[in-house]
Amino acid sequence: MRICVFAGSRSGTRSPYLAAARELGQALARRGIGVVYGGGGAGLMGSVADAVLAARGEVIGVMPRGLFAAEAVHRGITRLIEVEGMHQRKALMGELASAFIALPGGMGTFEELFEAISWAQLSIHHKPVGLLDVAGYYRPLLSLVDHAVKEGFVPEAVGELITVEGDPEALVDRLAGRQRPG
Ligand code: AMP
Question: Among residues 107, 97, 154, 106, which one has the least CA distance to residue 128?
Answer without folding.
Answer: 97
